[in-house]
Amino acid sequence: MKRKITALFLAVVAALSSTVTVYAEEAIEQRETVRVGNYNCWVEDGEYYTEYNGEVCQVINLDEMTPPTR
Description:
By secondary structure, the chain is an alpha+beta fold. Helix content is 40%, strand content 29%. The chain has one helix spanning 2-29, and strands at 34-36, 39-44, 47-52, 55-59. It has a four-stranded antiparallel beta sheet, with no helix packed on it. It is rod-shaped, with a radius of gyration of 21 Å.
């Protein structure tokens, strides 16, 4: 009896974990991207980010920079 319950529990855990993985992949694919320089970026909290060599990097858009006043 314990083996059946354990097998059922593990089957449910496996099904739920694959569902979470699919949901996370869909969320990443649905990001809207904008072109900044040569990079496809997405916006989070008003900042631009891109993925470069497997790492998430912040992109600074110099076109939006205001020159300092003297």
